[in-house]
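Quick one, T. Sequence first:
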Amino acid sequence: MFTGIIEQLGRVARTVDAAGNLTVTIEPNTMWADLSLGESIAVNGTCLTVTTWDHAGFTVDLSRETLAKTAPHWQAGHKVNLERAMTAQARFGGHVVSGHVDGVGEVLNVEAQPGAYTMTVRAPAALARYLVPKGSVTVDGVSLTVVDVGGPAGSRADLRADEFTLWLVPHTLDVTTLHTWTAGTQVNLEADQMAKYAERLLLMRDWTPPSPGPAASGGNEVSA
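Structure tokens:
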């Protein structure tokens, strides 16, 4: 489990293809001294397992499924956002983040504002129902507040139902990869976990489990 508060940036040092899967070596700005085998690290919002490490970096394996369902951030030289799994003693500064990417969105525009930047992002249509004004969303692993949303119950009529806006302060841009985003950048999106649980509960209210079928005969009857 993660919070969407980025600890530091890293760089994809190298990649090795293995029959469509990918082994990726990542070098953090400062390597953690207490990293352990099998530990989970969110890399641009994707929960990955540490397979090896040394003083300079660590490696993770990406399956073809992961590569197909996440933004193309895995080229050598690419900067990535890093967050280790939260501990019970940590401050919960963001929101509940699983590191399971729900879909890939696209940055539509970036505009400089006094003391901040605004960005408009288009999400996959299936995620539109989880976007609410002033709600939470994870974008490339960063916990952010949705400002405006289009569509039903939205806050801006000029936006589509699958489009939302973000306001980013200079500190966020300084400590994450968000300062590299431009129109057309693809980003990993994870909707608020609480919204997905609430939806599932509502959908299951009237569900009735199927009745069990007749018991199969054991074939041990003895005729008189």
